[in-house]
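Our preliminary data section would be incomplete without showing what the modeling component actually yields. Below, a chain of 396 amino acids is followed by its predicted structure, encoded as tokens that our downstream tools consume directly.
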Amino acid sequence: MSERFRYLFRRYFDKTETPEERDELMRLINRPESEVMVHSMMEEMYNSRHLEDDPFPAGAREKMLKAALEEYSPEHWDTTVVPVRKSLNWLRFAAAAVLILALSIGIYLYRSVNVNENLATNKVRHDVQPGGNKAVLTLSNGEKIQLNGVRNGKLVQQGSTAVVKLANGSLAYVPDASSSGAPLINTMSTPKGGLYRLQLPDGTVAMLNTESSISYPTAFTGGNRKVTITGEVYFEVAKNKKMPFIVTFGDQKVEVLGTHFNIRAYHNQLYKTTLLEGSVKISTGNKKQLLLPGQQAVYNVGAKKFNVNVVDTDDIMAWKNGLFLFDNTELDQVMLELSRWYNIDVVYSGAKPSLNFTGLIKRDITLSRVLKKLEATGGIKFTIIDNKVIVEKNNN
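Predicted structure:
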């Protein structure tokens, strides 16, 4: 095993490993008998780079391993930045993953697990709570209803459909045989720090991410079921072969009969449609693209061109499952995701740090706890002042 372990460890450290080799290494490193090999390879990798200063103080490696095995067990995973791969039960391998990540991107676990749970007192003047179940419903007459502040039960009648807030906090459109009227157009929108679940009149479920919207009729009639979205929305479409379900966003259209898929269409140059099951047809003008499960169509608005990739759908759906998931994500994009969810402004002080992040963090924790984990890289520091986060390069 030792030679195979050394080979896999070197490959991962040099970022030349395949996904299969990464998974194999995670399985090996999780075995109790691998502890000695872990210490040995940590020593070898750093010595082979001829570092002038060992980044780990005397005894730190032993403390890192002990801390990882004790602190980063599944019950403590909520604030841990760890690699994620679909073929692994990553909770089982959290401790091992933290150690490997410490080597590959310089997160020194010994330092991070011994800091306070919050940022230093003088760096937090007002912590920020995470987002939650918040949305605004705009009726056909322009009236707006704040959904997070209303009681459960029937809210309003829209044509032949009753609008009902369910006990689980979601909104449902329920056909009402005792009422009549032409279908009306309603719009649900989520603010920064909001997400919401909607059940459309046909039983289709739509989950809106933060800063997103969906416009839809209160009853589906005619030859199709058509809705319009902005931002990011996940759909579980009720099957109806006679009435295709059509989603429009920007200059694109997605057509399905019944399937699960996710559309990310924030205002930028890339629209991303990811298929989880079934099939979808995407069209823009005379350009068309069919997707298979596990595929993602990335449409470049400027170039008017599709690019289809095979993706890990668990990664794409991390937001719906209550997670931030970063995969070599640039700092700007990380802070954009945080600004949307925590409803904060981000200000860069001095030279912007050139950093990428890989890992996951739960979305139901306070902002200071998220920033603490990012600070553990050693290359960045944050200050929270009210609803503003100041980002600075850490030169220490």
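Confidence is low (pLDDT under 50) at residues 49-58, 67-96, 98-122. Residues 2-112 form one domain. Preliminary results of this kind motivate Aim 1 of the renewal.
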